[in-house]
Design brief:
Number of domains of chain B: 3
Number of helices of chain A: 6
Strand order of the largest sheet of chain B: 10-11-8-18-15-16-17
Strand content of chain A: 5-15%
Distance between the termini of chain B: 40 Å
Shape of chain A: globular
Structural class of chain A: alpha+beta
CATH architecture of the largest domain in chain B: 2-Layer Sandwich
Helix content of chain B: 25-40%
Largest sheet of chain A: 5 strands, mixed
CATH superfamily of the largest domain in chain B: Aldehyde oxidase/xanthine dehydrogenase, molybdopterin binding domain
Number of helices of chain B: 17
Oligomer: heterodimer
Radius of gyration of chain B: 27 Å
Largest sheet of chain B: 7 strands, mixed
Strand content of chain B: 15-25%
Shape of chain B: globular
Order of helices and strands of chain A: EEHEEHEHHHH
Helix content of chain A: 25-40%
CATH superfamily of the largest domain in chain A: Beta-grasp domain
Number of strands of chain B: 28
CATH topology of the largest domain in chain A: Ubiquitin-like (UB roll)
Chain lengths: 149, 726
């Protein structure tokens, strides 16, 4: 059993402590916006926030996350009001298939929290998620748009 | 010499699929109209098969092809809406299921979404669908007012009776319109009158992708659902010998361990994580079969033998290459190669199936709903009325999800758990090692220059794999795979852009056991490298500028030339590049569209490439949504350059070596060049946009690398040559 706080809600989950947080979020808490891509912390599709820091949830265990504040893509908007990043994503028509975009948006949200006006170099250094559709050009535009919104 | 055994063809699946689905297409307007309108699920009447209009004026446009990120859903909706004259802000879309399509004599036509054909192969009948609905709606309005229909018109979902100024909305007359007999002779708009086609409107499917609400196949939840993890024999052609189920019997959540055909074993558990964990602990013995000694080296040697000897199919020929080569002032010869590539879809293959004693339903992301449907029929033995496939958003397709192996597996697993829905998800490792790989080929090119450095002969001999041989043998023509000549044909929608007086392009077919597939761009990925890098080699031998050398050969191909000129001009070809920056060009015609790219790169120590800037032009004839085309162009460089730098699947002991993104990497944002797209529709034809540009990504960069270093790269991937992104 594990007690996790996800998007402000307490979850009492029947899950082993060494289960990757990704699978506890998806299968036990039922929040499927966080995606499985590689399972080895390479692609970033499973990025969530742990106490406000972007982490790849496939590489974090449930016991690591216990007692911390977990935010997933579903927890960004409040009362249906999208965040600046989400709005910029819509305005710039960023997603293609969209599968990597939950993780991309979580990584960008964390970046902008620490660095509200990132340069292109800052973006290159911080955003390392894989997007096979190749939306990077729009991702970059949308990050700058969100930063100046 | 290692023995190479061709994969077994599943002819039975094809025959059953084709028979079930019927032959002749009943496109667009073959609708069972009668006194009672056909109703959508919510009770709203269909105006016709393509258009449902609700009383609140919401317009539901039916989309048969699969959206997978390429934007076809939005583009197809634009085509229907253009003719329908509806309010674009009220447009939503829905997928009619494959089962409905079969039940209604394929009223929505072909579901297959590959070959960049979503729009170009359905534009005519979907526009007619929209136009037919418009005519019926206006007629219904005129009937309501008892006025001649010629006095009425429609725009923005509002019907106006011009003499009286009276108006009504589509939503108010849709019920009446649905009861009318559809006209059979609708006239489509002149392209000059288009208002929505050609406009870069935003995609219709974005909102749920930024909140996590979009449901992909991997996200399906059904009551009582279990989860399955699978391991198929690591060597294609091998079999599952045995497994020791007792060793994992007590593991948490495990419900059942099942064989899947004679090659795979799956663990079914409450969660996928439990299933995967138990599967990793399961002792499995494989019979690796006849291909267990095949390696990249043995395949390369077998293909190399095909460059010089043995039978070959001729794809394009004019003049007499042999004589011209013999009489040449100078000849140039080079051998190139292109490796296996994995699609590496972000969402690994998965499918959910519910099998009962009299019915089977499947939920999956697929590029071909009808093929998935046929796979369900084949795996169950059930008739079409007892099966259904529910298409979900795929986390990319790239050609991989046109295949149905993962659907068949899910059904075969669910058959062993009747009444319980089971979701089968491949691990990334299973996905990377059981792909349908970009085919492996080599190519020997020989060119002849006369004393004035004119190209007098070109001989291309490709040796390697045919996709159609393995996946669609019925499409072979007397054994030849015509698709292997994509971009090199004398005519058609993938035509060589050069006039060479003596030309011979041939294919020596050699099919290793690794199963090939349609990898975004398909055969043009290697053909464009072979042709366009070799054109640079010829230009070098002729001591000419690569652009000028090409131009001399392109007089009879003005559309090829136009895109090449466009990128040359915008990149500043012929003007001085920034310090340390060098340029390369490439062009090709495929999937009906003319594309070209120009790259600016700098190279450090001969091994670190920085791609600064790409200019890429596309002439797709008509450009339905230029904003989405620009995104397809930019994205093509991520896919194409990832394949060039990081791709390449190695074969060792009969199996694929690369198992995840740590060894089969993909470009990140810091490696992304600035891409400047030029969308230049010349009108009069419909070309695809999802794939053509990929082909020119690699050769443009390789030619720029040569300009920078004087070193010619003739094989892919660059990682094997210790060359990387700077």
């Amino acid at each position: 059993m594990a007690n996790l706080t996800i998007n402000g809600k307490a979850f009492d989950l029947d899950v082993e402590p060494d289960t990757p947080l990704l699978w506890a979020i998806r299968e036990n808490a039922g929040l499927t916006g966080t995606k499985y891509g590689c399972g080895i912390a390479q692609c970033g599709a499973c990025t969530v926030h742990l106490d406000g820091v972007a982490v790849r949830s496939c590489g974090v265990t449930v016991s690591d996350a216990s007692g911390k504040t977990i935010t997933t893509i579903e927890g960004l908007a409040t009362n249906g009001v999208l965040t600046k990043v989400q709005q910029a994503w819509i305005e710039n028509d960023v997603p293609q298939c969209g599968y990597c975009q939950s993780g991309m948006i979580m990584a960008v949200t964390a970046l902008l929290k620490d660095n509200p006006k990132p340069t292109d170099q800052d973006i290159d250094d911080a955003i390392t998620n894989i997007c096979r559709c190749g939306t990077f050009q729009q991702v970059r535009e949308a990050i700058h748009a969100a930063a100046s919104a | 010499m290692t023995k190479h055994v061709a994969p077994q063809l599943n002819r039975r699946a094809f025959v059953i699929g084709a028979a079930t689905l019927g032959s002749g297409l009943a496109l667009g307007l073959d609708i069972p109209f009668g006194p009672q309108p056909v109703r959508a699920a919510d009770g709203t009447p269909e105006v016709n098969a393509w258009v449902v209009i609700r009383p609140d004026d919401t317009v539901v446009i039916r989309i048969a092809r699969s959206e997978m990120g390429q934007g076809t859903l939005t583009g197809l909706a634009q085509l229907v809406a253009e003719e329908l004259e509806c309010d674009w802000s009220k447009v939503t879309t829905e997928y009619p299921t494959p089962g409905q399509n079969v039940a209604r004599k394929r009223v929505w036509g072909d579901y297959s979404t590959g070959g960049s054909r979503g729009i170009r192969a359905s534009q005519d009948y979907v526009r007619k669908g929209g136009a037919t609905a418009r005519v019926m709606l206006i007629q219904a309005g005129a009937n309501d007012w008892s006025v001649p229909v010629s006095e009425c018109s429609a725009a923005n979902s509002i019907i106006t009776h011009t003499p009286s100024g009276r108006t009504t909305s589509y939503g108010k007359v849709a019920e009446a319109a649905a009861k009318l007999t559809p006209p059979t002779d609708v006239k489509l708009k002149d392209p000059k009158d288009w208002k929505l086609i050609g406009k870069g409107v935003k995609r219709l499917d974005t909102a749920d992708k930024v909140t996590g609400a979009m449901i992909y196949g991997i996200d399906v939840k059904l009551p009582g659902m279990l989860n399955a993890a699978i391991k198929d024999c690591p060597v294609t052609g091998g079999k599952l010998k045995s497994f020791d189920e007792a060793k994992i019997a007590g593991m948490k959540g495990v419900k059942k361990v099942v064989r899947v055909e004679d090659t795979a074993v799956a663990v079914i558990a409450d969660t996928w994580w439990h299933a995967k964990t138990a599967l990793d602990e399961l002792p499995i013995v494989w019979d690796e079969g006849p291909n267990a000694k095949v390696s990249s080296a043995s395949i390369a040697q077998w293909l190399a033998e095909g460059l010089d000897s043995g039978p070959a199919y001729v794809g394009n020929q004019n003049g007499d290459v042999k004589t011209a080569l013999a009489g040449a002032a100078k000849t140039v010869e080079a051998t190139y190669s292109y490796p296996y590539q994995n699609h590496a879809n972000m969402e690994p293959m998965n499918s959910t199936a519910l099998y009962t004693a009299d019915r089977c339903e499947v939920w999956c992301g697929t590029q071909n709903g009808e093929a998935a449907f046929a796979a369900v029929l084949e795996a169950t033995g059930y008739t079409a009325d007892k099966c259904e496939v529910h298409k979900l958003m795929p986390g990319t397709g790239f050609g991989r999800r046109g295949q149905t192996d993962y659907v068949r597996q899910a059904v075969l697993i669910a058959k062993q758990m009747p009444g319980t829905p089971v979701k089968l998800l491949w691990s990334r490792e299973e996905d990377m090692t059981h792909g349908r790989y970009h085919p492996i080929t080599q190519c020997k090119l020989t060119g002849a220059l006369d004393a004035d450095n004119n190209l007098t002969a070109l001989h291309m001999r490709i040796s390697g794999q045919s996709i159609l041989f393995s996946l669609r043998p019925e499409a072979l023509v007397n054994g030849k795979d015509p698709a292997t000549f994509a971009g090199l044909n004398a005519n058609g929608d993938a035509m060589i852009g050069y006039s060479v007086p003596n030309l011979l392009i041939e294919h020596s077919m050699r099919n290793p056991h690794i199963i090939p597939g349609f990898w975004r761009g398909v055969n043009v990925n290697h053909n464009a490298i072979y042709l366009e890098c070799f054109m640079d080699e010829l230009a070098k031998a002729a001591s000419e500028d690569p652009l000028e050398f090409r131009r001399k050969l392109m007089a009879a191909h003005p559309k090829h030339l136009a895109v090449l000129n466009a990128v040359a001009e915008k990149i500043g070809w012929g003007t001085e590049a920034p310090q340390g920056v060098h340029r390369g060009l490439a062009q090709l015609h495929s999937y009906g569209s003319y594309v070209a790219a120009a790259a600016e790169v700098s190279v450090t120590d001969g091994t670190k490439i920085k791609v600064h800037r790409i200019v890429a032009a596309t002439d797709p004839g008509y450009a339905v949504n230029p904003a989405q085309i620009e995104r397809q162009i930019a994205g093509s460089f991520v896919y194409g350059l990832s394949g060039l730098f990081y791709g390449g699947c190695t074969v060792k002991d009969g199996r694929i070596v690369e198992t995840n993104f740590d060894t089969y990497n993909s470009m990140r944002i810091n490696e992304m060049p600035k891409v400047e797209p030029i969308v230049m529709p010349s009108g009069g034809f419909w070309g695809g946009v999802g794939e053509p540009t990929i082909s020119v990504a690699a050769p443009a960069v390789l030619n720029a690398y040569f300009a920078a270093t004087g070193k010619r790269i003739r094989s892919v991937p660059l990682r094997e040559q210790n060359i990387s992104f700077a």
